[in-house]
Amino acid sequence: GSRRARYRVEGRALTVEEELILDRDPSTIDAVSIAVPETARRPLSVEFST
């Protein structure tokens, strides 16, 4: 498979648009995960859309 990502910074916001190309039938995949780490001193506000 492959992944294509486009990053855009606007002020303090980072927007990431991602496209995943899967090597197998998508109906056989139960989940996809994305990790967005944060620290106690710098909590993040994260939004997802599909």
Which helices and strands occur, and which strands form pairs?
Elements: E1 2-10, E2 13-21
Antiparallel strand pairs: 1-2
Question: How is this structure best described in words?
Answer:
This protein is mostly beta strands. It has one domain. Helices cover 0% and strands 36% of the residues. It contains no helices and two strands. Strand 1 and strand 2 form a beta hairpin. The mean pLDDT is 90.
Oligomer: single chain
Portion in strands:
35-45%
Strand order of the largest sheet: 1-2
Give the tally of β-strands: 2
Number of helices: 0
Instruction: Categorize the overall geometry.
Output: elongated
Brief account:
The chain is an all-beta fold and 50 residues long. It has one domain. Helix content is 0%, strand content 36%.
Using brief descriptors, characterize the structure shown:
36% strand; 50 residues; mainly beta; two-stranded antiparallel ribbon; elongated; 2 strands
